[in-house]
Design goal:
five-stranded mixed β-sheet, alpha+beta, three-stranded antiparallel β-sheet, about 30% helix, 2 domains
Length: about 220
């Protein structure tokens, strides 16, 4: 089930107060048009009808997909570190057994949807990104700012990623064989990081770094 609310938003340019439609809850199967707005990254777009000012208005939003067994909670980043794990097992018992993730951006929400709809493990995907980011940084002589999973092609035995570098508007595209993902999945399972904790957790670059550290310690 999807939930809608209307809130007054003040335009930072002209001060006009605009009644704005928001979606704090989105059901993938119940509301396909909302899913499409998430995937084309327009759901959080906001425009003042008085002066034309445009911005991205990101608010807390829970995206749930019962068919694919996952939930993603968007918590706008307030300049802090990765969000802490949030236990919702008591408040939302109907979500038991589903993967639960926290992200801070619309792009992060889109990435998790792509990963889980493809039937992939997101921590294993993060490990692949970690390896490819090092390759991209070495090749271009600069650190990668952000990176995202783009697609998987099982017939071609490949998965694709986008890497954003400082000073470049367009991302660098890099792909790799699915063997790299399978190896990463083995690492995730070997350290026991593939279970469902029952909490909304942040599975990102930091989580991949910690998993790799634990794996190397066990291998010593």
């Amino acid at each position: 089930m999807s939930t809608k609310m209307t809130k007054d938003v003040s335009c930072p340019r002209c001060g006009a107060v605009i009644k704005t439609e928001m979606w704090p809850g989105i059901g993938a199967q119940e509301s396909p048009p909302l899913r499409e707005r998430v995937m084309d990254e327009t759901l959080f777009d906001w425009k003042c009808p008085e002066c034309g000012y445009e911005a991205q208005l990101v608010y807390p939003c829970l995206y749930h997909d019962k068919q694919n067994g996952f939930l993603v909670y968007v918590v706008p980043n307030a300049g802090c570190c990765s969000p802490q794990a949030v236990d919702v097992s008591e408040e939302f018992p109907q979500f038991g057994g589903m993967k639960k993730r926290v992200v801070t951006t619309p792009a992060g929400l889109k990435e998790k949807i792509l990963i889980f709809e493809a039937g992939l493990d997101d921590l294993a995907v993060e490990l692949v990104k970690l390896a490819l980011a090092d390759v991209a940084a070495s090749k271009h002589g600069t650190e990668v700012e952000t990176s995202y999973f783009s697609a998987v092609d099982r017939e071609a035995d490949r998965m694709e990623f986008s890497f954003f570098l400082p000073g470049r508007d367009e991302p660098v595209r890099r792909g790799t064989r699915l063997d790299v993902y399978r190896k990463s999945l083995e690492i995730v399972r070997s350290v026991g990081a593939d279970g469902d904790s029952g909490k909304f957790e942040s599975v990102d670059y930091d989580a991949a770094q910690e998993t790799l550290r634990r794996y190397r310690e066990e291998d010593e």
